[in-house]
Design brief:
The protein is of the alpha/beta class. It folds into 2 domains: 76 residues, Hypothetical PUA domain-like, domain 1 (Ribosomal Protein L25, Chain P), CATH 2.40.240; 175 residues, 3-Layer(aba) Sandwich (Alpha/beta knot), CATH 3.40.1280.10. Helices cover 31% and strands 26% of the residues. α2 packs parallel to α7 and α5 runs parallel beside α7. The two termini are 19 Å apart.
Length: 261
């Protein structure tokens, strides 16, 4: 872990800032304000920056103005992923701004990827999600990664239809596809994960898990059957029925606790 003067070095996840002649030029207004106003950084201060996908550089602030900050690259860093377990959260589209809450909390907890998708009971319809809303979701994921001091920003996929979601599951190579279903009364998430661990070598500590969460109204029976036919395993989180914006992040936390911590 990089340090600066005995303290942990400040971190920043880049937007699409160019790297030219061993210099990184930051022009994003939010990043400039964060560094200059919130962190009160000055010329000469060290900063660890990441592209959000595995590359990182130790840098020093060369110049800082209202319009841009120029960073001198000192050395490239090699990062490991935040978690060995990759959890992909498939979230049935919820109402209002609840998807933002799902993205924020799941990112803080260590989700690898989030795929929003439409279902019969989802509101809004999958086709109603605007480009502006999708861009906002990406910004929220980045902000949550920065707040939780992650260097990896989870991928927020485009909104998929239910049909696309079902057809893509079997081809994704998941070790386990968990379908949280309120009518499942026997198999818990913990039991499903323990069954998975029993089938793999003790030396194999990397996992690729998918978890599917329905919208406020849950899944229709035919949707559950379609997902099971593609390899999904139904599981319960207990007797308590959770809100859709709560269930996903909690499931992510439970999976990472069982497999990664």
């Amino acid at each position: 872990m990089a340090h600066d003067g005995g303290k942990e070095m400040r971190r920043l996840i880049l937007q699409n800032d160019p790297i030219v002649n061993d210099r990184i030029v930051i022009k994003d207004k939010e990043d400039i304000a964060y560094l200059s106003i919130v962190l009160r950084m000055k010329e000469g201060n060290r900063l660890l920056v990441s592209d959000g996908a595995g590359k990182a550089w130790e840098t020093a602030i060369e110049t800082i103005t209202r319009d841009e900050i120029v960073l001198e690259i000192i050395i490239e860093q090699h990062l490991r992923e935040d978690c060995k377990t990759r959890v992909t959260l498939y979230q049935g589209l919820p109402k209002g701004t609840k998807m933002e809450e799902v993205i924020r909390k799941a990112t803080e907890l260590g989700v690898y990827r989030i795929i929003p998708f439409g279902t019969t009971r989802a509101i809004p319809d999958a086709g109603d999600v605007s480009i502006a809303k999708s861009e906002r979701w990406h910004r929220i994921a980045k902000e949550a990664s920065r707040q939780s001091r992650r260097f990896w920003v989870p991928e927020i996929d485009r909104v998929r239809s239910f049909k696309e979601t079902v057809s893509g599951l079997a081809e994704s190579g998941y070790d386990l596809i968990l379908l949280l279903y309120e009518l499942e009364e026997v198999r818990t998430i913990k039991h499903a994960l323990q069954e998975l661990k029993a089938c793999k070598s003790e030396d194999d500590s990397e996992w690729n898990i998918a978890v599917l969460i329905g919208p406020e109204g849950g899944f229709e029976l035919w949707e559950v059957e379609s997902l099971i036919n593609e390899g999904a395993v139904t599981a319960t989180m207990g007797d308590t029925i959770l809100r859709t914006e709560t269930a996903g992040p909690i499931a992510v936390a439970m999976i990472l606790y069982e497999l990664d911590l």
